[in-house]
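Page 37, top half.
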Amino acid sequence: MMPILYSFRRCPYAIRARMALILASKECELREILLKDKPDEMLQVSSKGTVPVLQFTKKVLDESLDIISWAMESPAPNVHVFSEAERLLSSELIHLFDSKFKYHLDRYKYSSRYGEDPKDHQNECKLILENLDKKINPNPWIFGKEVSLLDISILPFIRQCKIANPDWFFSQNFFNVINLLNYFESSDLFAQAMQKYAVWDPVKNNGNIFP
């Protein structure tokens, strides 16, 4: 049975999982869902109710980093191979963006939901991006000509920060980050990952072969 991927096009966690599947040429059935109307079929295999969810015959992966790890079990062509120092830096940065950056990003983007001052959280995001800017020198990806797991893991969240207020984002002085995001959004990888699909209908069973 082909694995089934429950996904939501704009979700940064789902975006990075889809990119890993593309890079690793791991074929699955993609079922595009609406987060406000989650199908019972997805909730039966993952009660978390979040995407992505990758369903196999005998197991389920419902964390994006687990899906990335599964996809990359075998070396994928055109994906940067980390040195030990790069691996440590990547692990540190992915954890930072999945925890502290995501925390402040949510409260910046959805301040009314959290009852918080968006400026405070915007500034926290800015500090993290400024620190990242000092650590990278994209050419065109973080570690050179080939995309890395660090790129696909953090750039969907940086994109969300940009979307929250593009004028503010592009007026900042973290130029390495801005250039990296621009390259990311113009890449074939991003275009393929962001392809639009009709919402999955369990009656029509209109899943799509992906990638």
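Page 37, bottom half:
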Amino acid sequence: MNALRSGLFVLWMVVTVIPYAVAVLLLSIFVRGDRLYWFTVVWLRLAIWGARVICGVHARVQGRDNLPDGPAILCPKHQSTWETFAFPTLMPRPLCYVFKRELLMIPFFGWAMGRLDMIHIDRSKRTEAWNKVAEQGRRFMAEGHWVIMFPEGTRTPRGGQGTYKSGAARLAVATDVPLVPIAVTSGRCWPRKRFTLRPGLVDISIGPPIPVDGRDPDALMREVEAWIEAEMRRLDPQAYTSGAPPAP
């Protein structure tokens, strides 16, 4: 049954993303910036609606009052595609994702994403990538956006823990902007390397902003890591009881 529902969900996304992406590409000739961003978010709402109605994937958000009024760099746990779709629908400000440029090659979805105010980088050119993140991150935050960077860099399996990289903390120090740690249990419903969704509840817990105060980036990221991983074990204790990730 989950496979059938997931197939219908994939069909739903394909049927909706193609005309919507074409509309974004055409609209971007005349409209850019926040207006184009919020227009694009409508499709993400359709995708999250499809996951909920077709596959039974629901969400619960805690800690909204921790979101700052000013600039911020969001640092979420990354377990599945779900949160990349969901965060723009949940946050009150435009989000500027930092992502590998290969995603721009995805037909329709990637083409439309390339028209938004995002930071796409070449991971093979580390110095050039960092300079681009620092320059564009500063500019987009000055325009009222929040930068969002997954500190583990890639999706991790439910119950797993990747290496927390210091890029977001380096940007925070360079711009004097706080880091906001976020725990997400999306692996319960959308396993990392599968497109078979399971019904269930995704918990999103937003932590208190961590101020920079001239601190060392590595120390800042260790604090982000400690908060996220402790919160993950509180939200999804079953995934961590055996000492090994549960089977996807």
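Margin note: The radius of gyration is 18 Å.
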